[in-house]
Amino acid sequence: MRAFRRLRETCPDATLVCAGELAGEEAAFAEFLPADRRARYLAERHEIATEIRSALDEPGIEYAGVVTDARKTAMFRDADVFVLPSYTEGFSLALLEAMFHGLAVVATRVGGTPDIIADPEQGLLVEPDDDEGLAASLSRLAANPALREQMGRRNAEVARARYELADVARTFVDLFDTLSSTNTARFAASTSGISGAKRA
Question: Are 69 and 148 in the same domain?
């Protein structure tokens, strides 16, 4: 939210559409954070949740709630940039969906995101808590439609080349076959050793 306020200073017509569940004050969330951020979150979680909720009333910010199906597709279609400013992240399906829809990405360099998004070919990555860097990245893409389009095309290409369902399923089957063969070989070697010991 703080980064978006900075962006609005130079791009007053910018709109931020937030989707998903609102951040709560649950202490359980802290276990997913790196140690250096965990203590801060636990101490400030009430203020963080309050700031997020109050920001939703500011000009240019809309909260769509949890979206699915056609509404989600329409939101991706209408967006210019997908923003994922997470403090912690695994392998984000929302990020993959944005890529399939051909969107440029601005995200934080956490979890699996750097493995999915090549900076600067597919998007711009910043460190968590870097409001200034996040705002600068958003401003850069807001001012450069050609760059957004270039990143979006690359993301769509990468998504279709690496993350189509059939390709992912084939990768898992190959991995399973490899692991099965390895485990069988280990088991056979172990059994052979035991048999040899018995014969001795």
Answer: yes
